[in-house]
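hey m, so remember when u said the tokens were messed up on ur end? i reran from scratch. heres the input so u can diff it against urs
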Amino acid sequence: MPTHETPDSPAASTADATEWAARADQAARSVTHGFGRRLFFLPGTHIAAVSLPTAGLKRSLKSRLGPWHYWWQAHYVDCLVDAGRRELATKVKFDGASRPSAGRLASRLVTTIRLRNLLRFENHYYDDMAWLALATLRLDKLAEESANSGRRRNAVVRKRLTPQFDSASTDDFGGGTFWSTKRDFKNTPATAPVALYYSRTGHRSKAQALVDWLDGKLLHPERGIFLDGLRAANGGIQIDDAVYTYNQGPVLGALLELGGEHNLGRATALVAAVARELTLPGTNVVRGDGTGDGGLFTGILLRYLALAARDERLPEPTRTAAASLVRDTAEAFWTGRTEGREHSPSPLFSFDPLRPAGETYPPGTAVELSTQLQAWMAFEAAATLPQQLRHAILP
């Protein structure tokens, strides 16, 4: 089993974009083969199990369906779009010529999400819906460039979900977006992806208002990173000062999408804050946030750090720093991989970048989809980086 360098002497990634693409393909096959399946055995459907092994066929229908993690599936769509973009560039399918393309699987997945979600795209959490809306925007662009079908269905997703975001982005708490239909908590996890969605769909003033609210209400003044949210409690409003890696990602994405000197300056400061506050000691490796929903967090941040690394409007030291964070974290996930066991994906990736998968997932442990998508996202992000952005040791 591969081992890691110690945190005091981290190994920089020397893989090039071609090698990262091959690694991403391996992760894609691991997820689609291991977790991917039909819904109710229906032809033309595709969904991912939330963990492996799954419940046996003799169990109840509820057990066979398992828990429903809408937003995990939305990030699965995003990962498939990443693979589809590489297929479009190389004209080579990630899973072989006889298998469905990544874009085709993503299209089936969006349709199946609706079926599994009781024939609706709406749910009770605005951040969940925002992630799916963002993923279908990217899928729509892929379909347009590859002349594939599905764009009408993607437009329906946005037609159904945009009013949800409008209704949740109110003047309560001074602005921002509610997290859920309970409407008692406005937070970064909902506000940031909604701002990014607005910025990508031409609603720039709405997007700017949301990122300005985040900057004014939830940006830690000394640490430079975004806190979790504001909650109605005890007749007032209380701040939830938890810090999560993934919250920084869509804020960064929205700032880059909006552009302009002020927003780009904020983006530059945020990359520096991530490097300073959210990396493991002595490394350029972004910390992990555990399993469950947290198993996605680091991968989401890396997706948007890769955007910063490729954005020529940012200062070169910022771009180099962002690239280093992506490459070194992705390299840590790759180094810690192990071959899968019975009823587990192969290769198998750790949810903690500096602990090997054989340790974090000992034999007999269920493997969660979120953690494997996270590693896949990391490799896809690394595969997009310009080679001239070399490794840098950050202060």
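this time it looks ok to me. The longest strand covers residues 229-233. if urs says something different then somethings off w ur setup not the seq
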